[in-house]
Amino acid sequence: MADIQGTYDRLFIAVPNALADMLDAGDAGGSVAVFVDGEPVVDVWGGFADADRTVPWERDTIVNVWSVTKTMTALCALVLIDRGALDPDAPVAHYWPEFAAAGKEKVLVRHLLSHTAGLPDWDGPVDELYDWPAATSRLAARSTRWEPGTAAGYHSLTQGFLVGEVVRRVTGRSVGDFLAAQVTGPLGADFHIGLPAEHDHRVAPAIAPTGQDEDYSASAPGNPTGSEAGNGVRVRDGNSPAWRRAQIPAASGYGNARSVAQVQSVLACGGEVGGVRLLSRAGCERAWEEQFDGDDRVLGMPMRWGLGYGLFGTAYGWGGWGGSLMMLEPDSRMVVAYVTNQMREPAEDTRGMEIVTAAYEGLQGLRL
Q1: Number of C-alpha atoms within 13 angstroms, CB side, residue 311?
Q2: How many CB atoms are located within 10 Å of the residue 368 CB?
Q3: Residue from 67, 114, 174, 324 carrying the catalytic annotation
Q4: Residue 110: left if φ>0, alpha if ψ -120 to 50, beta else—which one?
Q5: Which residues contact 128 (CB under 8 A, 6 or more apart)?
Q6: Smallest Cα–Cα separation from 280: which of 260, 266, 261, 264?
Q7: Which of 248, 287, 316 is nearest to 88 (CA)?
Q8: How far apart, in Å, are the Cα atoms of 89 and each of 111, 113, 142, 345?
Q9: Is 67 a catalytic residue?
Q10: Are the C-beta atoms of 71 and 26 separated by less than 8 Å?
């Protein structure tokens, strides 16, 4: 069995065992954390941080979590909403006047967070993702694909720029700077949007699925032959220094399972973790208010969307390209996070849910 490092409550032994099984099955490396009541009951890692399997995955190894980043960007918006600085029912153009171009006057802030704004496609070059003014100006000039609020289509890359520019207009800070100053800094969490070069030595680069190389590109789980969900982003793009430095708030967040679970425990625990309060209880519950229930036009499958989170029964969260996943359940005050450098084909990847299922086994024993 693969060697698993870290600590865990014996009631949750199924979680490190699940990670070990994945490594034994051929995965390079990863980390898992389960937080209950804002405290870690599982904090484990194992495997290797490189494709050649010469660099061990360490306690402070970080990885691009891809679209799990969206939950961090959404949390920034929710904090501003809770403070009264941002109105989810206000037109986006109220904060970002240029956005009203091409008939977008009726797009609301809540439409951005719930993938119902009608702007799911990134039609620019990948290099423009690294240029914030160029990316946001491109989106401001676009027209919507449908009447905002009437349909949903996963805004894979665009959501981060859309929400992020609203955050910037309200606060004068980029999403990455706001996250660091108002969320991860106070919590002491090791998560970054816009990664400084000083952390590069800790990064585990993404490894393409078996049989693929660094030209492997993103696609929607329900539409594997389409390009809308990934908009042409390749593994080699995500492994580049330019990607790490850029603030792409839908997809370029770096952290480990511990930091993801620690931050998202704010929502699972009524707004306060470790004596740090970031949200009111009502502010947390706002995230679960259903904005859409139906077929997602991009993902090609039924989805329920809240304000920045996918809704799955009593659990909420989202996953990232390649396998990383965050799921939280306020009823149990639990957060489960899994991050990995080993990508798998989306249609064949059940690892995140296997980790979640293992965590629920431990939770049942803890609550007895």
Answers
A1: 21
A2: 6
A3: 67
A4: alpha
A5: 134, 135, 138
A6: 266
A7: 287
A8: 9, 11, 21, 37
A9: yes
A10: no
For the whole model, what pTM was predicted?
A: 0.96
Neighbouring CB atoms inside 10 A of 283's CB total: 20
DSSP letters, 285-317, are: HHTTS--EEEEETTTTEEEEE-SSSEEETTEEE
Q: What is the chain's pLDDT, residue by residue, as a tens digit (368 residues)? A: 899 999 999 999 999 999 999 999 999 999 999 999 999 999 999 999 999 999 999 999 999 999 999 999 999 999 999 999 999 999 999 999 999 999 999 999 999 999 999 999 999 999 999 999 999 999 999 999 999 999 999 999 999 999 999 999 999 999 999 999 999 999 999 999 999 999 999 999 999 999 999 999 976 554 444 434 456 899 999 999 999 999 999 999 999 999 999 999 999 999 999 999 999 999 999 999 999 999 999 999 999 999 999 999 999 999 999 999 999 999 999 999 999 999 999 888 999 999 999 999 999 887 76
Helices (H), the chain: 14-24, 69-82, 92-95, 109-113, 132-141, 158-171, 175-179, 185-187, 235-238, 241-245, 257-268, 281-286, 351-367
| Tokens representing residue 197 in the block | 């070069």
Closest CA to 259 of 164, 338, 350: 338
Separation CA 194–CA 254 (nearest Å):
8
Residue 50 DSSP SS3:
coil
* 137: nearest Cα among 116, 156, 165: 165
Tell me how crowded residue 25 is: count the other CB atoms within 10 A of its CB.
Answer: 10
Q: What secondary structure does DSSP assign to 61-115, as a single string?
A: -BEE-GGGHHHHHHHHHHHHHHTTS--TTSBHHHH-GGGGGGG-TT-BHHHHHTT
Q: Which residue has the tokens 């949903």?
A: 152
- Asked if 258 and 184 count as a contact pair (C-beta separation under 8 A), the reply is no
Q: Which amino acid is at 63?
A: V
The DSSP secondary-structure symbol of 137 reads H
Distance (Å, rounded) from C-alpha 9 to C-alpha 35? Answer: 11
